[in-house]
Fold this protein.
Amino acid sequence: MEFANKGYLLLLFLLIPYFLWYFLYRKKGEPTMRMSDTHAYEFAPKSLRVRLVHLPMLLRCLTYTLIVLCLARPQSYNAWNKTETEGIDIMLCMDISYSMLSEDVQPNRLDVAKDVAAEFVSDRPNDNIGLTIFAGEAFTQCPMTTDHSSLLNLMRNVNSNLVMSGLIQDGTAIGMGLSNSISRLKDSKTKSKVIILLTDGSNNVGDISPMTAAQMAKTFGIRIYTIGFGTNQMARIPVLVNGQVQYDQQQGTIDYKTLQNIAQTTNGHFYRAESRSELSQIYQDIDKLEKSKLTKSSYAKLYDVFQPFAFAALISLLLELMLRLTVFRKIP
C-alpha cells in the first residue's frame, strides 16, 4: 500500500503533545475532593469503569489517526504480476484475397474462416495468439497477445475491402504471409511455436516463395499447419463494377501440393476443408497440440482504498461519543 499525499502523515506527530497534556496536565484542571485519610480506599477493588477510564481518549486518538490516513490517500496496487501458465505461441495467417469472398460456403469463405478462428481463440485462453493477414501483400493485424478480447475485436474488422478498394494489391502472397508470421515467432522462448495458414488459392505474387518461407520456419523450430479452404468448383463471387456490386462465377484454384510440402517441411500437418463443419473439426484437431509453460504478465492500476479507514473513523467517533454520554458521563 502507498500514500498519494504522504505529507499529511506528519500530522500524526501532534499525538505526542496531546498524550503529554492528557497524562501530565489535564488532571490539574479537573475538580477534586479533599479527604483527611484515603487509607480506606487504598485496597478497594477497581470497577470496570475505572479500569477503562482512558478508553474515550484512546478512541479519540484512533479517530484522529484514521482521519489523517484518509487525508494521505492510501492506495493499493498489484503492479506487474507474472504467472506461469500452460500455453503455446500461435500466429494465425489468414488469406483475405478477393477470392475469399466466394460463396461456396455461406455467407462466404472469409466470414466462415473468421468465425471458426474466433472460436479457436476463445477455447485457448492461455496461449499467445496473433494474426497476420495477406493478399498480394502481408501485414500484422494483431501481434501475439494473451489479451484475446483485443485480438477478437481486430479479427472482426478483417475484410476484403482493402483489396476491393485497391488500397493493397490483390493476389495470394503465401510466402509473404508466412514470412510476416515467422518474424513474430522467431524470438519466442516457448517450446511450441505454430503458424496456422489458411488460404483458398495458390501463391502468385510476392518476393518470397512459400517453400523458402517454410525453410525459414524450420530453421526457427516453427511448425506450420496449412489449411486449403474452399472447393475447386464454380462459386459465386461479388464483383464491383462502376461502384455497383454484381456477381460472377469463378472456379477455385487451391495449390494443395505446395500446402502439403510446407506442412511436411516444418513437421506440421496439411488439412483440406470444404465446409464450416470440416474447418471447425480441423481447428479442434489443432487444439490438441502440445502445450508448454508460458509467462503471462498483467498490470493493475493504482486505486484509492481510504473507504475502510473512513468507515472505521466514523465508528470510532460514534463509540467515543456514546461512552462519554453514558458510561463515562461526568457531573461537575
